Amino acid sequence: MNNREILxxxxxxxxxxxxxxxxxxxxxxxxxxxxxxxxxxxxxxxGFTTSYKADQSPLTTADLAANEIIVNRLLESGxxxxxxxxxxxxxxxxxKWHYFWLIDPLDGTKExxxxxxxxxxxxxxxxxxxxxxxxxxxxxxxxxYFGNPEAGSYSATIEDTIxxxxxxxxxxxxxxxxxxxxxxxxxxVIILASRSHMSAETEEIIEKIKTLYPDPxxxxxxxxxxxxxxxxxxxxxxxxxxxxxxxxxxAGHAIAANAGIKVxxxxxxxxxxxxxxxxxxxxxxxxxxxxxxxx
Length: 295
Hints:
There is one protein chain. This protein is an alpha+beta fold. The chain has two domains: 3-179, Fructose-1,6-Bisphosphatase, subunit A, domain 1 (Fructose-1,6-Bisphosphatase, Chain A, domain 1, 2-Layer Sandwich); 190-291, D-Maltodextrin-Binding Protein, domain 2. It contains nine helices and 14 strands. The chain has helices at 3-13, 19-46, 61-74, 91-94, 109-113, 170-175, 200-212, 225-232, 246-257; strands spanning 50-52, 58-60, 81-83, 99-107, 120-127, 130-138, 143-148, 152-157, 178-179, 190-194, 217-221, 237-240, 262-265, 284-287. The strands form four sheets. It has a seven-stranded mixed sheet, sandwiched between helices. β5 (120-127) and β6 (130-138) form a beta hairpin. It is globular, with a radius of gyration of 18 Å.
């Protein structure tokens, strides 16, 4: 049975994803992310135009081009798609979705415009209200992060000479990848903070952490790379007490969770939920096991 037949069969049955189905869907997302990322990099290097949405957030020609590539490839899976740059779907319709793709074709548009390289392609498959599969691709470096519940999470570097269509199975990608976490940085506490969106509330919680863990290191990173650092074991905690959207966090959430990281809403201390009527995330905190008592 080929990949298309596997997905068609799964979609019709609407069953729980088995290992084979998870592998096929993860591979599809990896291929879509790499192709979109290469288009983003082409535009990044040759020039782009920027407009602004109603909320004054920037939108570039790279955002739109990447969105088109990802949507066209993922439509083959048969699942609905919710994208930051796509058409809004009414909640009464999407609340019926059990499986759907949640994508941010260019996460870190401000970083893209500022030419600091810290922008990513984010693709997640949400099951129920939980991100199950996550893929993050960093166009400038070729770094790829991916994970699902059966396989766990991995990182790899995809050379620009590699044709993503040449990957026939997820196992081929895993063969040249590293299982996450890579290391555990438990000797020194490392706190992750947003480069572009540091809030007073986030600064306050960081100061509280300092009272319990003297002399922590604070690392600023853009876009969803903070989740990747947690999954790698290169940091222990990421408090985000400011606005984010579901498409900003879903892919990173899945990768981190499949590497053993907890992602909880701050007030309720419950797993972050997706496909809500309001797509704005609550304040949240992502952390590894050494912060269990703190949280």
